[in-house]
Amino acid sequence: MRGHEPAPEGEHGTIYLVAVSGTKLNEQALPDFATFGAIEQRTYQIVKVDPGTGALSFRAINAEGEVIDSFDLRKN
After folding, report:
1. How many CB atoms lie within 10 A of CB 60?
2. Residue-wise pLDDT tens digits, 26-59
3. CB contact at 8 A, 44 and 71
4. Strands 67-73 and 55-62
5. Domain limits of the chain?
6. Which of 14, 30, 43, 63 could form a disulfide with 37 if both were Cys (CB 3.0 to 4.6 A apart)?
7. Residues whose CB falls within 8 Å of the CB of residue 42, separated by 6 or more in sequence, listed in order
8. Mean pLDDT in residue range 11-24
């Protein structure tokens, strides 16, 4: 996001990550500002931080064990 609008693909902006837990799946739709959403499926997330390099690695994995979303951030 940048200036309350999604940043153009390939450009820098703020990344908002929303994750939930639990067994109940509520009916929902993907918000207009979102470029990806794992709606109506169970997922878990793995976040790794390397304090030496300042790198953060994120993976969202579905119930079948497939990575459905991921990104890496590196501190400049």
Report:
1. 19
2. 677 777 777 667 777 788 889 999 999 989 999 9
3. no
4. antiparallel
5. 1-76
6. 30
7. 23, 25, 62, 63
8. 71
